[in-house]
Specification:
Layout lengths: L15 E3 L6 E9 L2 E7 L4 E7 L2 H11 L4 E3 L6 H12 L15 H11 L7 E2 H7 L22 E2 L12 H20 L1
Parallel strand pairs: 2-5, 6-7
Antiparallel strand pairs: 1-5, 2-3, 3-4
């Protein structure tokens, strides 16, 4: 998709990908941000995926694997505004994410993701703390989700404070945390 923060990729410019049915339409855009390639996707209900990586085509395949029954629609100028808002949120972590979310998961996953959204920007929590907050002290690693940064699993660290795995790479996790911490310090000074 061409536009602010977005690139046109002829291999991704097909208007419509279909994966075994068309139970719903999901619009998506692939672009660039300071952390590499970004894919933003939304159903009629809200943003259902924000994926990060180095390869735009791999992100599109990941989206198709996540929603195999959906009709995936790219190159939609009406969707560029949503995608641009998401990139702006990535680049300015003190902005609030005010787009509706369409987060799909089990009741347990929903509980975990809600707990993650309670961690303020510039702060972290351990896997153990999150597990205790949701009343499942043994569920110390169940934080991954398909909506990068808007559901901030990057704010979860090991008990000793060290960084550990992140679906989109530990270096991206580190960069997000450094950016958020710097913004939080600047906000506290003002």
């Amino acid at each position: 998709m061409a536009g602010p923060g977005f690139e046109s990729n002829s291999r991704l410019d097909a208007k419509y990908f279909q994966g075994g049915g068309t139970e719903e339409a999901i619009r998506f855009a692939v672009g660039k941000c300071s952390l590499g390639s970004i894919l933003v996707a939304a159903s009629e209900k809200g943003v259902c995926a924000i994926l990060l990586g180095d390869d735009a085509e791999a992100l599109a395949r990941d989206l198709q694997a996540r929603f195999p029954q959906a009709g995936l629609i790219g190159v939609d100028r009406n969707f560029e505004g949503v995608a641009t808002q998401v990139v702006r949120f990535f680049e300015t972590p003190d902005l609030s994410f005010d787009l509706p979310l369409d987060v799909r998961g089990t009741a347990f996953q929903q509980k975990v993701w809600q707990a993650l959204r309670q961690i303020p920007a510039g702060s972290t929590a351990s896997y153990t703390e999150i597990a205790k907050r949701i009343g499942s002290p043994r569920a110390v690693r169940a934080v991954a989700n398909p909506i990068a940064v808007a559901i901030p699993c990057h704010r979860v660290v090991r008990k000793d404070g060290d960084l550990s795995g992140y679906r989109w790479g530990v270096e991206r996790k580190r960069a997000l945390l450094v950016r958020e911490k710097a913004r939080a310090i600047l906000a506290a000074i003002k």
